[in-house]
Amino acid sequence: MESTGLFLLAVSLAAVVCVAFLSRLGRSPGSTLPNSTEEARITPDPPPPAKQLVGNAIDWDKVAQEMIERQHAHDLAFKEALEKKYGPTDKSFHTKIAGVSHKNEDGTRRRRILEDCKVGDMLTLIHEPDNPYDPNALAICTDDGCQLGYIERRLAGEIVRDVRRHGPRWVIMLSHFNHHPETFQIVGATLYVLRLVEAPVIAS
Q: Quick one: fold of 65-196?
């Protein structure tokens, strides 16, 4: 009888110890002990091998392709809206603004003016027949007359000759900014240039 009591006492003490141990683990007495899978969730994963890091690197070619596709979609939407308003176009292309790094005659910085522009802004071409460097020079200006730079010389000559024959049928839009590869500062911009089949009639 005495041995049976001692045995029951030992079992009770073991049960108390077991419950206390499980309580420290934050588990109920009916819970199971951590298995190897659960321990793996708690233990920090070891760093991946070098080849895995390379495999997870950014695919810059893919990023560039996605940017090109988005830009193409943006330009196409602009072209469709323009043709809906003014009629069909027969030519379109991209070209960079020349001379952005220079100052204007009034001392304003063209690059600073460009930073205040937005993608999609309509820009104006102003012919400078008295320009000492090129009589076909075409200044690129914002709608409030601030100059951003010039159209490239060869293209300017084509536009001036075409306007003399067919009237002002060229439309210029700021397509996207060009950034420095390291500082990512705006250093220039690319234009989307379209030529209408016929010059629009401006109501007086």
A: Alpha-Beta Plaits (3.30.70)
Tokens (6 digits) for 9: 């006492």
Q: What is the pLDDT of residues 74-86, one digit of tens each?
A: 788 888 888 888 8
Length of the chain: 204
Q: Give the three-class secondary structure for 131.
A: coil
pLDDT digit string (tens) for 75-125? 888 888 888 888 899 999 999 999 999 999 999 999 999 999 998 899 999
Burial of 52 from C-beta contacts in 10 A (0-12 / 13-18 / 19+): exposed
* Longest CA span, the chain: 124
Cα dihedral value 73, 74, 77, 79, nearest 10:
-110
Contacts for 99 with CB less than 8 Å, ≥ 6 apart:
110, 149, 150
Domain boundaries, the chain: 2-46, 65-196
